[in-house]
Amino acid sequence: MIIPKILAIYLPQFYENEDNNEWWGKGFTDWESVKTAQKYFSEHNEPRVPYYDNYYDLSRKETMEWQAKLAKKYGIDGFCFYHYYFKNGKKELELPAENLLKWKEIDMPFCFNWASEPWIRSWSRISGNVWAERYEKEGSKGQNGILVDQEYGGALEWKKHFEYLLPFFLDKRYIKIEGKPVFLFYSPDDIAVLSEMTELWRKLAVQAGLQGLYLIGAHLNAPNKYLDAAIIYEPRNSLNQLNEAGKAEIKNGVRCFEYKELCKEILNSAPIFDYKTFFCGVSGYDDTPRRGKSGEGFIHSSPKLFQKQMTELLQKSISYGNELLFINAWNEWGEGMYLEPDETDKYGYLEAVKDSVKEVDTVEKTIDWNNRNDVMAGMLSLDYNVKKFKQLFTILDKWLFLEQEERVNFKAFFDSHEISTVAIYGMASLGKHLLLQMKKEKISVMFGIDRYVGQFGEDFGIYRPEDYFPEVDAIVISAYEVVPIREKLEKKYRGKIFGVEEIVDFMMKK
After folding, report:
1. Is the peptide bond before 12 cis (omega within 30 degrees of 0)?
2. In the chain, what are the helix, strand and coil shares in percent, each to the nearest 5?
3. Whole-number pLDDT of residue 467
4. Taking the model in full, what pTM does it have?
5. Do residues 471 and 495 make contact, with C-beta atoms less than 8 angstroms apart?
6. pLDDT digits (tens, 9 = 90+) for 147-164
7. Whose CA is closest to 465, among 271, 255, 316?
8. Dist CA 429 CA 413 (whole Å)
9. I need a surface site. Which of 98, 216, 265, 305 has the fewest CB within 10 A?
10. Helices (H), 299-417
11. What is the pLDDT of residue 481?
């Protein structure tokens, strides 16, 4: 029995740099969000305080030496560094990884996770990475827009990016599978040139003397033949499932979920499509330090529950023959995801990792997964996702046909129903397309309804489903499961309700 290597996702946002100073104020790091976090309800575990007030600086060698020794002592086999590489080769938060490359004596195995989203201020009209939304709402800057833009360019830019990565790939500490450097794409679906880019990278890797590359994709909405494997990125995957199941409890504005429910969802997760799929454990989650009352998180987490989660995930990973098991995260303090010791639990979560490895290592026979109830639950989850994406594909296929025939006309549908003002329920991919089309047709879209807020600009508000929102003539549901959403809306809303597919079908008949 081979126990998978445990890799903790690593955030390098803990040292002063020029861009942070310019955007958020002199000396800003993610510690600022952590130190100023607020307690919003009685059992809210905020603010989090590092053990012995260890608000460390990642630019210091002794910090990374301490982290490496701590990880090794407690069974963490390596770190998966967030990699921030943007338009024209601009890098962000690159110093810790670059220092590690120089400091060969630090025994810290590592790999990269390319978070290729643009960096934005909060309330930006596009999705992206927001470090301090709570500060924005308090008016510290008041600026709206992109901080660092993301464009992937062409072959020349891809080659330059690979050449930057190559010294890391060649480092003996870099984590490999089948002799190939492991590289994660946080948002592969957003990279339109992924096929051409990865083809070039693989070719360049072989030319450099490597056996190739082992590419893993997160947040996949469709199969992608250019990747070698997938990762179920937690806790977002399980948060989505819990939200859809109506498991949220609102406490003083914050969306709260029981940590026990998270553990169940994580264990029940099924492989993605036909991919080899790596799993991901989570010690906790709470993004209110960054987002304030717009945030969400888990309550009643504990090292004991985390140990049980890790033990079962290790067993599950072994049954699938996985070489790696990820933990989100080593030090994501601003979102309540960390293993590093704090004043509340001391070394509890690190001990949980160590004990789970010991527990699995002593098991003579792995679990018979063919008889586990959670396997069936995982298959049901997979079936749910297949149906969901099939419906999305059907709608977009019809929409594309209408576009080709120049027959897209949402306004005609609303005019036929005497509708002047509209709201959109569900602001994910389909909802975004719907909003842009309606604005193009000069339809009065008053607001959106979604679990997540603050991503569409100050001129377009988003309400949560449980909120009371203004009256409009109609709500258009762009989310999956139109029927149960309609039933919930009808209890609090008196206007008309339509699903996107209903409107698209109307246009198809014209």
Report:
1. no
2. 40, 20, 40
3. 74
4. 0.74
5. yes
6. 888 999 999 999 999 999
7. 255
8. 22
9. 98
10. 303-319, 348-361, 373-404, 410-416
11. 75
